[in-house]
Amino acid sequence: MSPVIQSLLETDLYKFTMWQAMLHRHPQTQAEYRFVCRNRESPKLGALLPQVQRELDALCQLCFTRPELDYLRSLRFISSDFVDFLRIFKFQRDFIEAWAEGDELHIVARGPQVHVMGFEIYVLAIVSELHYRRFDAASALAEGRRRLQAKIERLRAFGAEPPLQHPFELFDFGIRRRFSAAWQREVVATFQQALPQFFKGTSNVYLARELGLVPMGTMAHEYLQMYQALGVRLRDHQKAALEDWVQEYRGDLGTALTDVVGMRAFLADFDLYFAKLFDGLRHDSGDPYWWGELALAHYQKLRIDAHTKRLVFSDGLDSDKAIALYRHFGDRTQCGFGIGTNLTNDLGLTPLNIVMKLVRCNGQPVAKLSDSPGKTLATDTTFLAYLRQVFDAPPP
Fold first, then answer.
1. Following DSSP, what letter does each residue of 235-301 receive, concatenated?
2. Which comes out higher in pLDDT, residue 119 or 378?
3. How many angstroms separate the first and last alpha carbons of the chain?
4. Strand 255-257 relative to strand 214-215: parallel, antiparallel, unpaired?
5. Which residue, of 79, 107, 128, 205, has the greatest Cβ tally within 10 A?
6. InterPro entries from the entry (predicted)?
């Protein structure tokens, strides 16, 4: 059977945008990423170890092709020198290891951050697809197509409603926990054809290139977490990360992620300077209505017209949640909705809740204080307690 990952473009856009920023500003940084499965009932991923090892071997043989590099070079925010770096880039097998302890699968990538940060999305897509190959594909796909059609009909019915002041825009954010690469392509192509008025892009750069869609994404948690270990005061790490982003992209990719140390702590750093320079904010944990109201109140306090800004929701969305959020906010600000698992792995099977997160940087622990307690991630409880103290974050 062919390897799961066929192209190094088959990853989220924000891996490239963060990669470029890190290469330019902190290329010497050392990092460690760890795979974690959050499912309450064990999906027995340890049994996949031999297949995972073969997939990692195959991944480390891939290189970017000239057409792929030309495509990246065509994106105005991707710099020429970064594309030149990618032209000679190849994953090093020595930087990633996998092992099993009973039913539990362990994967750790450790080394120079500009050489190991890219593993994340490929590893998650590999584990997810290998896991679902153990199920009956024909019955799962039949159910998936039935549910896909129901989503389309639901959105078409919603489209008959009188529009609000700002348009409803939907994106695919589903590469990391998809049922398979082929299914993600079918879903994205179907949405593109059936709902062009709503469906505006995908985070999957390979599919964006293949289908002529807009590649979507800016930054992830690892980008801001990295700054917790880069020599600035811990209290100032968010401001340092945002400033470097502004200097790197000069107005492009202007959606800031808010939940590395919680929304309230983020807004304390997101002053008038940043609020004017960034186009909007992305929600990824906590109650989305509470989060959105805080964001709009913050813009109002800064005397910024919220109609010129954008709130992007991406936490556990499905079509109904996206529609409800749009009805709540669509007359007050621009909205975007990134749907992941519910688009690319809604086939009647229990979805995997898997992540591969940055846990150490330059020998120091880093952590995320999520607004959803189950999403808080840290391997060093002492550092986590210190982070809570610095940002006056309540215990879970």
1. GGHHHHHHHHHHHHHTTSS-EEE--SS-HHHHHHH--HHHHHHS-EEEE-SS-HHHHHHHHHHHHHH
2. 119
3. 45
4. unpaired
5. 205
6. N/Namide_PRibTrfase (IPR041525), NAPRTase_N (IPR040727), Nic_PRibTrfase (IPR006406), Nic_PRibTrfase-Fam (IPR007229), Nicotinate_pribotase-like_C (IPR036068)
In 10 A of CB 212, how many CB atoms?
A: 8
Q: Quote the pLDDT of residue 375.
A: 64
How many other CB atoms are found less than 10 A from the CB of residue 385? 14
Confidence grade of residue 376 (pLDDT, cut at 50, 70, 90): low
Classify 374 as helix, strand or coil.
helix
pLDDT digits (tens, 9 = 90+) for 40-60: 899 999 999 999 999 999 999
What order of strands is seen across the sheet that includes strand 104-112?
Answer: 96-101, 104-112, 30-37, 354-361, 364-365
Cα 26 → chain centroid: 21
9 close to 70: Cβ distance less than 8 angstroms: no
Helix pair 137-159, 319-329: axis angle to 10 deg: 20
pTM exceeds 0.90, yes or no: yes
In sign, the C-alpha dihedral spanning 89, 19, 261, 230 is positive
Residues 165-216 have pLDDT tens digits of 999 999 999 999 999 999 999 999 999 999 999 999 999 999 999 999 999 9
pLDDT given at position 1: 82
Domains of the chain: 13-134+352-390 (3.20.140.10), 145-344 (3.20.140.10)
Q: Kindly state the tokens that stand for 386.
A: 């210190």
In contact, 170 and 190? CB cutoff 8 Å: no
